[in-house]
Amino acid sequence: MKINKRSEGSMLTIYIEGRLDTSTSPELSKELDSSLEGVTQLVFDFTLLEYISSSGLRVLLAAQKAMNGKGTMIVKNVSELVMEVFEITGFTDILTIE
Amino acid sequence: MKEFVIEALVDKLPDVLAFVDEQLEAADCPIKTQMQIDISVEEIFVNIANYAYPDGTGNVMIRIEVTAEPFAAQIIFIDSGVPYDPLSKTDPDVTLSAEERQIGGLGIFMVKKSMDDVKYEFTDGHNVLTMRKGAVT
User: Fold this and answer.
1) For chain A, which domains are there?
2) What CA–CA distance (Å, rounded) separates A44 from A39?
3) Superfamily classification of domain B2-133
4) With an 8 Å Cβ cutoff, is A62 touching chain B?
5) Does B98 sit within 8 Å of A94, measured CB to CB?
6) Is A11 helix (H, G, I), strand (E, B) or coil?
7) pLDDT tens across B53-89, in order?
8) Which of A81, B4, B43, B44 has an alpha carbon 20 to 30 Å from B129's alpha carbon atom?
9) What are the boundaries of each domain within chain B?
10) What is the pLDDT of residue B100?
11) Through-space distance between the first and last CA atoms of chain A, rounded to whole angstroms
12) Under a CB-based contact definition with an 8 Å cutoff, are residues A38 and A10 in contact?
């Protein structure tokens, strides 16, 4: 998995490439812990995300909870495969997917 | 049928998925099905790695049987750790909002949703979890 970030003012975009699984999710979690300060608009770009398991969902849920009350969180460019996972777990209702 | 024995450690997940994917790809598994199976294998393996051997480490045996046209797969996980039925957990409420959601409990639910059949048995001192996608003949 590769994480790329782009920051513009209080907006942070995080691009994730590869697999978000039990082995890689802690890295994203750590990245979020250290970069959300002052961020009011968090965007995840999943164009290159190939796979997500429950550990990846946990990190997204934690990010959503962290952003609730202090700003917005948007998930965009979700592939059909990843969308399938969001659908069966009800994450389509929790996340703002564009 | 292929068998693979590996130490029950989370670090070994990439090896487990590589082994499973090799079998699935050999049978021309559709990409969506492969992701569903990978998700299920990850959840079960990580569960065993985290809970089966609280006093040290032990092994997991993974048996996989695949057929092509139409694609089907059966995967069996066998460990000799503490008896534990992961399917006995109550399913999470997937209609709750982010604030009400608990972190966790989703993994096994995803396995149940992704596979066509999942069953657990404790036999001869072993945890045996069998999951199936499609009809293995």
Assistant:
1) 2-94 (3.30.750.24)
2) 13
3) Histidine kinase-like ATPase, C-terminal domain (3.30.565.10)
4) yes
5) yes
6) strand
7) 998 889 999 999 999 989 999 999 999 999 999 998 8
8) A81
9) 2-133
10) 86
11) 22
12) yes
